[in-house]
Amino acid sequence: MVSLLDMPDVPMNSILDHGGPSVIFSLRKVCKNLRDYIDETMPELHLDAINICLEYKKITITWSHYLENVQISYKLHGNGYKTVFGENEITIENVDYMEGFWNDYSLIMKYQKSSLKRFHLHLSNSTDVEDVSKFLEQYQNSGTIKTQYLDLGIYHGDEVLVILQHLNANCLKNIRFFSASYYDKNIDFTEIVKLDQWKNANEFSSRNLSIDASMKHFTHFSKINAEFQHIYSEPGNLNVLKEAAIRSPNFEKYIIEYHDSFNVRQTLSEVFGNPFTYSIGQNKWSWFFNTCREEKILKIDNFLMFDIINFSLIDRSMVPNGAEVKNVL
């Protein structure tokens, strides 16, 4: 029987190229020759996504592959750390848990050559500030990550700039922020909006986060789903959104939430003009505008009950009878 070490390069490389993370890193531990061969050929790992959660003295990472999901945790234990992989537990002495995590992470990422579909990072509100700083310092040294989708759980807000800076600007298409503590308002967008990573992305969304920043920094996104502060106390933001939706050939949909609802409808009427109201009641107001795409109409809906404004495109034939289509081009 031919052993793996005797197998020709072509079938051997095919095995490695189609194996999941468990196969590759189990084979590395079989013997020095296999480890040296794998490290020399550097087979593509083909990971789809990485999910990292930083909690109190613990890091959990999930490597998502089309064949398997591999979850490993690293937790402070005595003067070292304990790593848990499935039903296996290993205790490492005299090594910090974060160092153990980054050693494994750096090794595995050497085998990831293609772009990830998703990079999910959750910095829990139970995490020590010092540990967050250590994590971000190591993150900066770990190299650029290629990912299409950033899903970032924000702890303080200061980490957002650091995370974005080390993502490949040519790959990132979708950005999502969510706050680990409800309505964290500590994000400073001053430097973030200058990044190519921000400017090149197509979609933005947020959860449990009320954003205090000018809408002009968000209008390059084709899709927005987020809550903004001062959307009505600064009505110019509404015009910025309307103009972007009308003139951009890439616009698809904006879902804007708000909470400063005093005199909302008065402000909307001043900005958009008289609304179209529906016979079913006054909860929904709508406005219609011609766009740069002749066959498409911008429809703006305000749902007072839900504190939401929707900006969307509809076919001209879908405009209700009696509704005015405004022309601002």
From TrEMBL:
Enumerate the Pfam families for this protein: F-box, FTH
Domain F-box: from-to ranges: 1-50
The protein's matches in PANTHER family, at most eight in alphabetical order, are given as: DUF38 DOMAIN-CONTAINING PROTEIN-RELATED, F-BOX A PROTEIN
Q: Taxonomic lineage of this organism? A: Eukaryota, Metazoa, Ecdysozoa, Nematoda, Chromadorea
Q: Which domain of life does this protein belong to?
A: Eukaryota
Instruction: Please name the InterPro entries in this protein's record.
Output: DUF38/FTH_CAE_spp (IPR002900), F-box_dom (IPR001810)
Protein name (record): F-box domain-containing protein
